[in-house]
Design brief:
Blueprint: H1 51-60, H2 64-69, E1 74-75, E2 86-87, H3 111-118, E3 126-127, H4 151-166, E4 182-188, E5 195-196, E6 199-200, E7 205-206, H5 210-217, H6 219-226, E8 232-235, E9 239-240, E10 243-244, H7 249-259, E11 265-268, H8 272-278, H9 286-295, H10 314-324, H11 330-346, H12 370-383, E12 385-389, E13 404-407, H13 414-418, H14 431-436, E14 442-445, H15 458-466, E15 470-476, H16 495-507, E16 512-517, H17 525-528, E17 533-538, H18 546-554, H19 595-598, E18 616-620, E19 627-629, H20 636-641, E20 647-649, H21 650-653, H22 655-660, E21 663-671, E22 677-687, E23 698-707, E24 712-719, H23 721-724, E25 726-728, E26 734-737, E27 739-745, E28 748-755
Parallel strand pairs: 3-4, 4-8, 7-9, 8-11, 13-14, 13-15, 15-16, 16-17, 19-28
Antiparallel strand pairs: 1-2, 5-6, 9-10, 12-17, 18-21, 20-26, 21-24, 22-23, 22-27, 25-26, 27-28
């Protein structure tokens, strides 16, 4: 089971369970059946041999046609060797979604994915999640899939997701390289545009500087691979600086496999290989695209190289011709197959019946378990953000609220709560249902038939609102407004919905409560400044238990502590072309930059913003040493070889030394409110000198703390200078500059100095 420790919002991960009725368990598909005398003698079926030796034996037995058949996501069976069909493509972003690898009606993550395989209802255990692209532009339709705009948070999330899904801690982590399931970090790299004003992801060429690649776009993938141990990576549709991601030697070989040591498989996004020829025109004939992607990962003298599997049928159609025309070697195909079959063996699918092996005791009782349902509720509670609470309107009184009007197109919509890439939940509670549990006299009106409010019932909704003691408006967006293949062109709510909100707010007896469901940020300045709207809650797409969590917060059974994972920009930000990938501002041209790390323009709400029913105060306790001497960390010869004064490249310090250079920072936090709360601490750092394209500030540590009313706690956070005080120079080199830095949390700061 995946447990995220990050306090920043929900990440829109619906850790929900599956309502799944098994009429009769079937046997899971596997190779090397011990009862089959025809296969038991094959070396690839001998589990005591090294996987590398077993895979070489297996691949050596395949014909060329059989080899090519295994290069697509729907890999067919090879009956003569007792190898069953395998489906590489399954989705598990917001729970285990409908996919080609799972045959059931429901949703699950990690353990439940293995459980469903064990009862014979799945054809694969490779899940193409998480999405760890940076939420660079607020209009991106798939931003809802990501943990936000911050590279550190995204990296931490990736590590937690991958380790949880792959089963690193299963039975105390004693199973070594055995995989519960396989996670795949996507979309590699600089992918964050789907379809904006006619520019699609299939033809988009992302022009990205080395500086932005180094400290924004690439770090989450590096964390996913090196710290998370991800066994899969998906290359993206788009080109980066002219080269298709799936055919980029420097990206797949030089960076992922070379620098970061990735040893898993690389899949193309669906039909991305075909796109290289058909839409990008990067090659003149289709077999060249097949050759390019399979050779993109070639590095002499190393194994575990290359793009390996095509989601689609392009490689099935054109790989053989690439071989026949000598544009591709059979050994290039073999390298891909080594990676693919190695993963299947690590999953235990060539060791006999999986039910009798590690992870084999994960059964149907793990599906829709109470523990997982509780986790879905806890995730929803922690992810909801209180944006406004004038005169402490919230929480509402349970006894003093005599009647309640619930109005809005999202108030009773299960589908909206789930977002995208989600299967049917085990048990859903909509906002309306959750609120009905607190107030007997609850009156509901949809307000309009859809979130765009093309058909609004303003008069009827006003009548419902004006007759109630309190009004909750459940509005926002849904998948008709933001989704894959569909980016927004505006940051405001649909105009007719905004008009409905304002009209109902004026008609109500008391200030209303506005609840927003959306994946991306919205310019709600009108509501922020409207005295008739007393409180605003943002719930993202909160999953199956979202309605219950919202009701608990509105009536005070849970003290909100969620924080925004992205900057909420004003509508004027739409003047910035979505195709401009630059993170850093350019004042001379009026370009404002992107995300809280670089953008310095007006904001509706800041990254990390979120209110609580409690007031928390902070104190950064004095540190034993507020000066960091970089020359002490490297050899004198290295110091003499540094030609540029004022900074030291992190690479010169080295990974081993960097890992040892850590400084504890203790934050004293006190809950001055009347309610207990789970409070996230966000520690930022900002340089005194704003030069060389350094971030204005950046998050360096975060942790949640549970405090009772009036309770105080000391929380130790860790400062890692090589990671937290470094930034990329124009050449993409991570460097630590001399000078003063300020650690900050809330309104408190502590100065530290870096001395060369």
């Amino acid at each position: 089971m995946l447990k995220l420790q990050t306090p920043l919002l929900l990440y829109l991960i619906q850790l929900t369970s599956l309502f799944f009725i098994l009429s009769e368990s079937a046997q899971p598909p596997f190779a090397c059946d011990s009862s089959d005398p025809a296969t038991k003698t094959y070396p690839f079926c001998e589990p005591t041999l090294p996987i590398s030796q077993r895979v070489r034996d297996l691949v050596s037995r395949l014909t060329l046609d059989e080899k090519i058949s295994q290069l697509i996501n729907s890999a067919p069976a090879i009956p003569r060797l007792g190898i069953p069909e395998y489906q590489w493509w399954s989705e598990a972003l917001h729970g285990l979604a409908h996919s080609r690898g799972i045959r059931f009606n429901g949703t699950a993550v990690g353990i439940e994915g293995r459980a469903i395989y064990n009862v014979g209802q799945a054809m694969g255990l490779t899940f193409w999640a998480p999405n760890i692209n940076i939420f660079r532009d607020p209009r991106w339709g798939r931003g809802q899939e990501t943990p936000g705009e911050d590279p550190l948070v995204t990296g931490k999330y990736a590590v937690s997701y991958v380790r949880g899904l792959q089963g690193d801690t299963f039975k105390g982590g004693k199973l070594g390289k055995n995989l519960q399931a396989s996670a795949c970090c996507k979309h590699f790299t600089a992918y964050d545009l789907d379809n904006w004003k006619g520019m699609t992801r299939y033809i988009f060429n992302a022009n990205v500087s080395s500086q932005d690649l180094a400290d924004t776009y690439q770090p989450p993938f590096q964390s996913c691979i090196q710290q998370g141990g991800a066994t899969g990576v998906m290359c993206a549709y788009n080109r980066v600086n002219g080269v298709p991601n799936c055919a980029d030697y420097d990206l797949l070989t030089g960076t992922a496999r070379g620098q970061w040591g990735f040893k898993g498989y690389i899949t193309a996004d669906c039909d991305a290989v075909a796109t290289i020829y058909e839409q990008q025109g990067y090659v003149k004939v289709p077999e060249d695209a097949a050759a390019d992607v399979l050779k993109a990962g070639y590095l002499k003298g190393r194994s575990n190289i290359g793009m390996d599997v095509d989601c689609g049928s392009f490689l099935l159609k054109y790989t053989k011709k690439a071989v026949e025309t000598r544009k591709l070697l059979v050994s290039d195909i073999d390298r891909a197959l080594y990676n693919l079959f190695s993963i299947r063996m690590r999953l235990g699918l060539f060791n006999g019946d999986p039910v009798k092996l590690p992870f084999g005791d994960i059964g149907s009782d793990q599906i829709c378990s109470q523990e997982h349902q509780n986790l879905a509720l806890e995730a929803a509670r922690n992810g909801i953000v209180l944006l406004k609470n004038t005169d402490k309107l919230l929480p509402l009184s349970k006894t003093g609220t005599t009647s309640l009007a619930v109005i809005g197109p999202n108030a009773d919509s299960v589908q909206t709560m789930l977002g995208n890439y989600a299967g049917p939940p085990c048990k859903s509670v909509t906002p309306l249902q959750g609120l009905q549990g607190y107030v007997n006299d609850t009156r509901f009106h949809q307000g309009c038939t859809a979130v765009n409010c093309s058909t609004a019932f303003t008069s009827q909704a006003m009548n419902v609102a004006s007759g109630a003691d309190r009004v909750v408006l459940v509005m926002g967006l849904d998948q008709t407004q933001e989704r894959e293949k569909f980016d927004r062109v505006d940051l405001v709510l649909p105009p007719k919905q905004q008009d409905l909100i304002s009209t109902i707010a004026r008609a109500a007896k008391n200030p209303v409560i506005l609840v927003l469901l959306s994946g991306g940020p919205v310019d709600i300045s009108f509501a922020k400044n409207d005295q008739h709207i007393g409180s605003i809650l943002w719930a993202g797409y909160p999953g199956e238990a979202g309605g219950r969590a919202l009701a608990e917060i509105i009536f005070g059974d849970h003290n909100p502590g969620g924080r925004l994972p992205v900057t909420w920009y004003p509508q004027s930000y739409v003047n910035v072309p979505m195709t401009d990938m630059r993170m850093r501002p350019e004042p001379s041209s009026g370009y404002p930059g992107r995300t809280y790390r670089f953008y310095q323009g007006p904001k509706v709400f800041e990254f990390g913003y979120g209110l609580s029913y409690s007031n928390y105060t902070y104190e950064i306790l004095p540190v034993k040493q507020n000066k960091i001497y970089l020359n002490n960390q490297i050899s004198s010869q290295t110091v003499e070889n540094l030609s540029t004064p004022g900074y030291i490249p992190v690479s010169k310090i080295g990974t081993k030394v960097c890992d040892k250079i850590t400084y504890p920072v203790t934050v004293r936090v006190q809950n001055n409110g009347e309610l207990a709360g789970k409070h996230p601490l966000l520690l930022f750092v900002r340089p005194e000198k704003k030069s060389n394209g350094r971030p204005v500030k950046q998050l360096v540590a975060f942790q949640s703390v549970n405090l009772n009313a009036g309770e105080r706690g000391d929380i130790e956070l860790e400062l890692r200078p090589c990671e937290h005080l470094s930034s990329a120079n124009e050449d993409g080199l991570m460097v630590i500059e001399e000078g003063s830095y300020f650690l900050s949390i809330g309104d408190k700061e502590l100065e530290i100095q870096v001395v060369k």
